[in-house]
Specification:
This protein has two domains: 109 residues, no CATH class; 79 residues, no CATH class. With 232 residues, it is mainly alpha-helical. Helix 1 crosses helix 3, helix 6 packs across helix 8 and helix 7 packs across helix 8. Helix content is 45%, strand content 5%. The two termini are 21 Å apart.
Amino acid sequence: MGFTSDANKVDFDEFDHENQRKIHEIAKKIALFKPTVILVESSPEYNQQLQLEYKQYLEKPDMFFKNPNEIQLLAYEIGRLSGTKRIAGIDHQLGYNYNIGSEIKNTIDSVWYIKYFKNPLAYYPEVNVNFDSLQLFNKLKITNNDTYLDYLITVNADMLTCAGTENGFEGADEAAKFYQRNLRMFSNLNRISLNTEDRVFILMGAAHTAFFRDFIRRSPKYKMVNTFEYLK
């Protein structure tokens, strides 16, 4: 929803009133989680501005947004319905080259690399669907599916380990940057002051969700709640 610098995104008309209604229906489902803290894909440096805008939304839920995104359309409404007091960003920008494999003479495994990227989703039949044909709710169910989240880590990072020059690790080094960005975002999560009573809802892109699912699942610090207890 809204502008993204990502190389790929699923088309969504955030100005369509019916789409906005559907988003608020999803907000009602997620609000049953009753989050005390909402974290979003925004840089921490904008937290003061984010908190101020959220407060304005609570006072006037029908306020106008010139270029609405998932924070304004979904996160704010979940917070309003839940009585959430705190909202903060945990994003960290760190660019990397998705296309490194096509820019070098790949001597690691160019055959498999090319074969895979001709149609990556073909290797994941469970989630190989036409996203444009799906309703918003079904798109969210697919993109939060474990198979799809695994696919996103593979296609965005792990497959790059098949690309590199004879004595180089160009693909792996680019993949490491994507891991690094997500680890830094997870570090930003750990900067948030929380107590054992807090319930944290995190709204971010699917690739980041994939990494956070793994980080949180392994962490003794957090208890992860199944998204599908609410997306039903």
